[in-house]
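Support case: user asked for a sample of complex input and structure output to validate their parser. Sending the pair below.
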Amino acid sequence: MAEFLFEMGLEEVPARMIAGAQAELERRVVGLLERERLIASGAAFKSFSTPRRLAVWVDGVAERQDDVAEELMGPSAKIAFKDGVATPAAVAFAKKAGVEVSALKTVETPKGEYLAATSVKAGRGAAEVIAAELPKELAGIYWAKNMYWRPGKPERFVRPVRWLLALLGGDVVPVSFAGYEAGRVTYGHRVLAGAEAITIAAPGEYEAALTKAFVVADVEARRHTIRKALDRVTRTVEGLRWREDEELVDSVTHLTEWPSVLLGGFEAAYLELPEEVLVTVMRDHQKYFALEDKTGKLAPYFLAVLNTQADEAGLAVIRHGNERVLRARFNDGRFFWEFDQRTPLKERLELLKTVTFQKDLGSYAEKTTRVRALAAKLSARLAERGVALDAAAVDQAAELAKTDLTAELVKEFTELQGVVGGLYARAQGYSEAAAVAIYDQYRPVSMEAPVPRSVEGSVLAIADKADSIAGMFGLGLEPSGSKDPFALRRAANGIVKILAEGSLPLTLGEIAAAATADAAIAGRMRAFFQERVEFYLREVRGQAYDVVTAVLAADSSDVRDALARAEAVTTVRGSEDFKAVSAAFKRMKNVLAQAKEKGIAVGGAVDAALLVDAAEKALAERAVELADAVEALRAERRYKAALEQIASLRPQVDAFFDAVMVMAPEEDLRGNRLALLARITGDFSRIAEFSEIVVAG
Amino acid sequence: MAIAGQKKALTFQDLLFTLQRFWADRGCVLQQPYDIEVGAGTMSPDTFLRVLGPKPVRIAYAQPSRRPADGRYGENPNRLFRHTQLQVILKPPPVSVQELYLESLEAIGIDLREHDIKFEEDNWEWPVGGAWGVGWQVMLDGLEITQFTYFQQCGGMDLDPICGEITYGLERIAGFLQDVDSIYDIVWAVEPDTGREVTYGEMRLPEEEQFSAYGFDYADVSKLWNHLELYESECLGLLAQAKAMDAEEGVEVLRRKRFPVLGAYELALKCSHLFNLLDARGAISVTERVGVMARIRTLVVGVAKAYAAQQSALGA
């Protein structure tokens, strides 16, 4: 048994791809060794990565594969031996099996006597296997974007490979890839360690040797170092904390080999610029962490994660450079802000005519006209339903919503579209309701992100998204499979989330109908919305597959209601009564389906006179009583209570199926019993289609 | 505080001299800037056409690059209508190309041990030229100082061998070395006899002011369109002749060699610049935009294909 170490040196790999590639290399190397019977399952392994390397260490690798004995069947004995002499057929078989002719055996089979041989496949040495197989695994690693670099284009990879290291115990494994043959040397930090090769005598020395060369190869250790350093450096300023940012921590972890943290500052005067602009510059453009005071207010400092370590004098130089860049960026922001104010939002409406939304749907000016009309319809609908909203602010916001696309600040910081419009609207004296609506129009930006803060903002956000969906659907540009170039799924998910988490009494059906005059398109939109509601209930709310199917079969247009019903079903589904009633409903559905299939008539209304059996009488009576109670609870959206009522039907349902034969020979009795079942399944399936609930056991 | 410590930071022109000397010493031929308007050093035929085909190339040149939409009337301390790139083209790229690049930074007075340097993913693309590559933006103490690209495709054709392209932003680097907050305060040169400092603003500010005004306010839109059409039709005419010659049997070598594909490229570049001017002027409507870009792409990609065909017919 020996340890195995493989490292691939690369020119700087894009930070966003490193974690995936490290995991894939680990999986491939461990998988290869298992497949080739070189490690037992459960063998210890660990992988590493930095911008300039990917590596895997595996313990307990056998020096060679075990020999494998295999029984081979040969030709029939009659053909193989003539007069006790081996024929060419026997010789060929022996050769194939790798044994002497004298070692051949015969076995009885149903077809007669046949030759057989025990062939021993000699295990190969681990180094030989790895050298032969590992290159194929390396070539198979997935990269989001590849390149060629060698003449003749022999391989594509994320960036040029610069060295390979492969050691089994103390010995080099001659793995070849991308023009390199593996050796026992690696390289440290570009600047701190220089270009000198570092010799690794044995796999176990790898991490320590790299640490000496200013490389922390363990990603989690690096992440920990960065977090600790962020904390420590922040503590040097009284009363501040750094703004938690998991994504940014991840990014800088994959951008550094030897991280350290630098505190920088900027003039407090820049704090007059909107925080959104300051944070976008720091975070998205400079990868700096923002600092805030106890109240969450931005402080005039930042934290930069360096890929080096410097003494105080060195840090002063680096700090000065970073502060200079940030100052220039902030100046740019200030310049754009001031420049943009020269052309008020209102005047920018004209400019929107020259900004394309989509070639067949026209400019953003045309989109604005459509969104205004749609938002007005939705506002009116909500007002009818007693929702307090400022319809004039909705209209104002819808009119100005896209004007910031012509602003220099948005051209510079595209991620701030909407936000900038909202800030400008406020600065230019529009109502706070309109400004907030413009600001929030692109919310939610993801399923984890917040929805618009106000009713006005929600209406605008829904109208904007629904207009895009309706327009694209009208052009036949619906998402298919992994293709969704206009991010329509995200738009529809956004609408669903706003409805689910806000308080707007609007249904998806109403939104679709308001967004297009074409009933066919509205129909396709509703189907598309239903998929998104399914997605939302399952993936965001964690509702079970069958619960979601059951609830949406009853109705999928009212998102909040669907969510409430799903939650109620999930609460009661564990009870024995509910399980039994669900199973009984399934049985009723089946009976009705069979009847339909066989063309058996189902009676109209249930005729009390035709209820002859005590059990069916009891069921019918109880069902009628319950139907009213359930309906009353349903109207109040007290779904849990309603479901408990339905579950209380269990004794009667059980007794009915025990005692009564639905498919009675008498036509009138049969028809009446089917009518009873139809009535019960109809009455009690308005909250969820219980027959869809999977009952275990 | 000049970042190079006690040493006096390089002037703008010394920065250029030093980088040119550095790359000349490493085998690059120094070319002069191309004398047609381009938006980037990549568009000079010394990059755009030389990267095509199998012939090795090592060349370096400074390239003034015009981007009319980036003009700010000289009011913004960080933006220019015309900036200067130092372009280094290495085909095929040597194995140690990154290390060579880092050495060049040392040569201009940047002691890497005193700074934070990172290679962050940044891929380059010029759709109009059917060209793209992968690479990095090189960040020095948080400042992007260089675009480093492994050119993969050009004129819609796969490159083999591929080409390494290093583009230094000279104003950025000079501003960093001299530690000034405005581009216009960069010391361009120091007069050796008087010791007087000549600034970037002194050399270029009027140009920024006037060309911003020209691009945003004065350029005659209908005449720009006329120019565009004239250059386009001449370019298309040349491309048609090139195509005809390809179909012809027994073309004399001299005639083929003298066929002005390079002339056609200049005409295409003129169109590209006119498009940029019209764009800055806000004169390209929604419906026109995609169409005009496609027209220019036809020219630029057409020239690249004609150039490749000419080279291969001449056995180069």
